[in-house]
From TrEMBL:
The lineage of its organism: Bacteria, Pseudomonadati, Bacteroidota, Cytophagia, Cytophagales. SMART domains: PlsC. InterPro entries: Plipid/glycerol_acylTrfase. This is 1-acyl-sn-glycerol-3-phosphate acyltransferase. Keywords: Acyltransferase, Membrane, Transferase, Transmembrane, Transmembrane helix. It holds the Pfam family Acyltransferase.
Amino acid sequence: MKILRGVYTAYGSLVFAMLFALLLPLFLIPILFPRQHKLVGILNRLWARLLFFFIGVPLRLVYRTPLDPKKQYIFCSNHFSYLDIPAMGLIPHNAIFVGKSGIETVPVFGWMYGKLHITVDRKKMRSRYTSLVRSMDAIDQGKNLVIFPEGGIVTEKGPEMGPFKDGAVRIAVEKQIPIVPVTIPYNWIILPPDQFLLRWHPLHVIFHEPLETTGLTAKDTDALKQKLFSIIDTELKQHQGK
């Protein structure tokens, strides 16, 4: 079984690399012309859909309520697998990611990621502050954000989430824009966090009803963070027995 999964993983990695090479010239457009930032979301969706199509992973996107295409959102999901990044690339709005600075060490891909998205070294206070400022600036520029509020893959075995950081809710409250809780229930099965071996399984991405922040203040951030956690965690538990 591990041999087959190894072959499947090698094939999946090759597909990922080939798609990256093909799309890189298009990703250079928003890098060279920042006002074309909407292309980032469009290209992310294209890349993600092609990736999951060629590795044979069926997609199911569930919307618990329609999302307003004219509204800005911060999308927050659980994070148990490296596949969560392309999975969140499927979101319907054009968005940029706020993620770990370590990804910038990946040759070429890391350079592109650092140019188009916001990176943070959570061990350094200055980096955390800078990423917070850049995130708020991105909102002011009309961008949507994707944030993994756990701060990375912090548990070796899904589907138990780690505690949420404050960043996403602080930005949402400060800028008075909604947070969309997102549950990704099966990626820890498809690509487990403790072993880089693919396993075939359908992929689900569930978009919950947005949490409104209009009128909220800094004193409401803890309650909002807990509500965000609870919505995602409840959904995860509902899928555990399936």
